[in-house]
């Protein structure tokens, strides 16, 4: 049997020859990572403010739509009940809780100088003077 010999390939460079290239890549990656972290540190407050502003704008828009809906229901109910409206009637029509309906009607009563009529059941009827032909 012939002994097996290992051949060292002269075309294969040693790992020491790749050291400068590897070191350059490591330095480039470190500098890039550091630059990205610094950029993120500078931009993060602005990004958070932008996201906060978008969320706030969305909430404002939603609240505004809700208010428009309530006003529309309020005016429809005033027409339907000839200017006389109870908290329960408005709450049922708007599908909102009673305390919210009362706050809304109290505010509109101040806006439009409504009168209040107590009922035998302890409720209050808001009486609004409607324009002629309404």
Any overview of this molecule?
The chain has 134 residues and is mostly helical. The chain has one domain (23-127): Arc Repressor Mutant, subunit A, CATH 1.10.10. Helix content is 66%, strand content 8%. Strands 1-3-2 form a three-stranded antiparallel sheet. Strand 2 and strand 3 (124-127) form a beta hairpin. The longest helix has 66 residues, at 15-80. It is rod-shaped and about 110 Å long. The mean pLDDT is 88.
Keywords:
single chain, 134 residues, three-stranded antiparallel beta sheet, rod-shaped
Quick summary of this structure?
The protein is mainly alpha-helical and 134 residues long.
Layout of SSEs?
Layout: H1 15-80, E1 84-86, H2 87-94, H3 98-112, E2 115-118, E3 124-127
The CATH architecture = Orthogonal Bundle
Strand order, biggest sheet? 1-3-2
The CATH class is identified as Mainly Alpha
Order of helices and strands: HEHHEE
The residue-averaged pLDDT reads 88
Rg over alpha carbons:
38 Å
Helix content: 55-70%
Task: Point out poorly predicted stretches.
Answer: none
Q: Give the structural class.
A: mainly alpha
Please tell me what the overall shape is.
Answer: rod-shaped
The number of helical segments is 3
């Amino acid at each position: 049997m012939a002994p097996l010999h290992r051949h060292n390939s002269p075309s294969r460079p040693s790992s020491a020859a790749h050291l400068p290239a590897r070191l350059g890549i490591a330095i480039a990656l470190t500098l890039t990572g550091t630059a990205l972290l610094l950029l993120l540190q500078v931009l993060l407050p602005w990004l958070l403010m932008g996201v906060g502003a978008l969320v706030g704008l969305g909430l404002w828009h939603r609240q505004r739509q809700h208010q428009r809906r309530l006003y529309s229901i309020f005016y429809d109910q005033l027409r339907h009940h000839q200017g006389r409206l109870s908290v329960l009637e408005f709450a049922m029509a708007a599908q909102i809780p009673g305390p919210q309906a009362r706050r809304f009607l109290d505010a509109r009563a101040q806006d439009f100088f409504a009168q209040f009529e107590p009922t035998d059941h302890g409720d209050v009827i808001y009486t609004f003077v409607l324009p002629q032909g309404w």
